[in-house]
Amino acid sequence: MKSFRLAFLLAATLTAASAFAQPVSKVKIGLVSTLSGPNGAIGEEIRDAFNLAVQLNGGSLGGVPVEMVIGDDQFNPQVGKQLFERMVKRDKVDFMTGVVFSNIMLAGLPEAVNEKVFYISPNAAPSPLAGKDCNPFFFAASWPNDAYHEAAGQHATTRGFKSAYLMAPNYQAGKDSLAGFKRFYKGKVVDEVYTKLGQLDYSAELAQVRAAKPEVMYAFLPGGMGVNFIKQFVAAGLNKDIRLVLPGFGADQDVSRGVGDVMLGIQDTAHWALDLNNPANKKFVTEFEKAYKRLPTVYAAQGYDTALILDSAIRSVKGNINDKDAMRKAFREVKFDSVRGAFKFNTNHYPVQNYYLREVKKDSQGRLVNLLASTQPVMANHGDAYVQECSMR
Amino acid sequence: MTWILFLEQALNGLQFGLMLFLLASGLTLVFGIMDMINLAHGALYMVGAFLAAWLAQLTQSFVLGVLLAIPLTAVFGMVMESTLLRTLYARDHMSQVLATFALILIINEAVRMIWGTDMPLAAPAALSGPVELLPGLFYPSYRLVIIGVGLVLAGLLYLAVTRTRVGAWVRAGASNREMAMAMGINIQWLFTLVFGLGAALCAVAGALLGPLLAVQVGMGESVLILAFVVIVIGGIGSIWGAFVGSLLVGFVDTFGRTLMPALFREIFPPQVASAAGPAVASILVYLLMAVVLFLRPQGLFARR
Fold it and tell me: H or E element: which one contains A312?
């Protein structure tokens, strides 16, 4: 009996060792995202775009057939954490991805990275993970949390807006966003208002804005808050005298569908646009619309790129995904045709990339679309402010 | 604060208060007369908004959409009352809360299955901009329409409750249900009618606020909490109480949001002010409720 156990152990060790050296026959990817509730549309964009990239690749990434495990975090950090744990421990996924919101990702992330499972973020990229809490198993395929706001601040400076009025919901990401704007804005901040998270009516705040007479108004109001704010901003007639600038996700195709024609002419800053001129993006936009009968948003672009990063990195290690150090090296030096154009990972595993000014226009079919206002980036090869605090070099 | 800003904020408070009144009046009657806690009241507001958005799309007319949505929501409310809620009147409040909370979830998912998570609803183009009320005082014309409709409906409701026979029954039912039944009032019929009226008012609020806020699943829950605050402040079962309570909540919330941060900035260093100001402003309404509950636990204008 004892010798049997010993033989079994030996066999198990040998199998494990050989698995280490050899290419795997399939790669299992866990995707946890917000797929239901008012914010479910965002998760669907990420999931659909990720699936699209896998499909276009013939069902494989880096030449290895893909098996997807998909879970809905229900916009609840506790549920998200449980899904991470289940996927890593029970389903034994090779990579994790998918989460929309920082708070949910931060709850689940330790379950993956502590088990040495790489997490490639298609959206959430909070500042601490770029700096002192940077992690060898975490990569952000999107943009640092502050980046859109920094680009907006830079745009306001470049355009010479002398006074700015800032508004964000009263929570951490709201405060970070306005800090990002101010980091690159050289004009005068007339006022900085923090509203209740989830507030729907902004009449009182808009009256204050009118009285303050700023040249530019920057509002970080994600989701439904932004939809309402824009409608009310225009109804109050403030768009005549004040330039409204938003972060990229605040004026995308999904927002325009809810707000309508008053969106026309509103500007925002983002790392990607529908009409960004590169072959990868043309293919992505065409195929996405063909598959899902709607135009993609920045979230979709990020989900698609996440799959492309996995594809390229798995290919460059020739499918030896269990060699974690080689895998990390492959991610760090990843080369792929991003839909956003030039892309590279910084030493903290956050992207260095361009940010553009976009504007809501009408396309030939009469749809509201968010297109480049200028092909010149507002910020070129921009990283983040926290990279020095990260110990990875 | 200049007087123009003050006037504009007063109009904002009035507009918010009047819409709250449309929701709270139905809620307070249902609570007062039937002694029934109906958490699904907010769901009627959502159904009204979705019906208006859907009908406006079909008829290509915002006004027609709103006008058709009101009776349809009333019918929906009456069907809900006569099939489901009626069986709950004899139960305790906890059962009612549980059952009507389940209704919220069911109606939310049903709406999502029929129309999706949200629907576009735009005000007529003529009302999309601001008007100059006084030199320098611009106000969104659509919000003015809401104020007008709210005032007219409040007046009509007041007349209906104080000057008509049905109104007398309603008041009788609210102050003493058993006695009203003993006097030969058909309470069952009255309940259904009141419920239908409450649903119709919800539909007005939902449809009018639709273009301003957003027609989306779950829109009823956030506003429901404030409607409950209103009826607790005003006194359960009192239309007049609901009116005063609504306006109080409307003004306190609007002015609190603008004055509190400014006040805190005068007193505290910027770091503290930017954190504490908005926080205090958002709980001001509940603070008001706590004070009223402390001084007058039955509400300002309680019927009993």
Answer: helix A298-316
Note the ipTM here: 0.81
pLDDT for position A5:
56
Please state, in angstroms and rounded to a whole number, the distance separating the CA atoms of residues B142 and B127. 5
CATH class of residue range A147-270+355-382: alpha beta
Instruction: Report the residue of A35, A45, A208 to disrupt the B interface, i.e. the one with the largest count of B CBs within 10 Å.
Output: A208
pLDDT for residue A1: 46
Rounded CA-CA distance A50/A45 in Å is 8
Closest CA to A206 of A238, A231, A162: A238
Strands B215-216 and B118-119: antiparallel
Q: Could you give the count of Cα atoms lying within 13 Å of A313 in the half-sphere of its Cβ?
A: 28
Domain-located, residue B30: yes
Which residues does chain A have within 8 Å of residue B2's beta carbon, measured at their own beta carbons? 211
Segment B117-134, tens digit of pLDDT: 778 888 888 888 888 888
Does B278 contact A170 at a Cβ distance shorter than 8 Å?
Answer: yes
d(CA B110, CA B116): 9
Which chain B residues are within 8 Å of A257, Cβ to Cβ? 120
How much is the pLDDT for B136? 80
pLDDT in tens, A291-309: 999 999 999 999 999 999 9
Tell whether the torsion through CA atoms of B285, B290, B294 and B300 is positive or negative: positive
Domains A25-143+277-345 and A147-270+355-382 share a fold: yes
- Distance (Å) of CA B83 to CA A242, B86, B114: 53, 7, 21
Residue with tokens 């909540």: B249
Q: How far apart are CA B229 and CA B252, in angstroms?
A: 12
- Could you tell me the pTM of the whole model? 0.80
Distance (Å) of CA B55 to CA A124, A282, B59, B146? 39, 38, 6, 19
Tell which residue, A166, A175, A173, A97, has the closest CA to residue A138.
Answer: A97
In angstroms, the CA A280 to CA A275 distance is 11
The architecture that CATH gives domain A25-143+277-345 is 3-Layer(aba) Sandwich (3.40)
Give me the sign of the Cα torsion angle A277, A155, A250, A79.
Answer: positive
Question: Is residue B134 a part of any domain in this protein?
Answer: yes
Distances in whole angstroms, Cα of residue A126 to Cα of each of A57, A297, A328:
30, 20, 20
User: What is the C-alpha separation between A88 and A355, in angstroms, rounded?
Assistant: 34
Nearest to A297 by CA among A263, A245, A339: A339
Total domain count, chain B:
1
Residue B9 near chain A (CB below 8 Å): yes
Helix (H) or strand (E) holding B154: helix B141-163
Host domain of residue B193: 12-220
Q: How far apart are CA A223 and CA A122, in angstroms?
A: 17
Q: In this structure, is residue B61 part of a structural domain?
A: yes
CA of B33 vs chain A CAs: smallest distance (Å) = 32
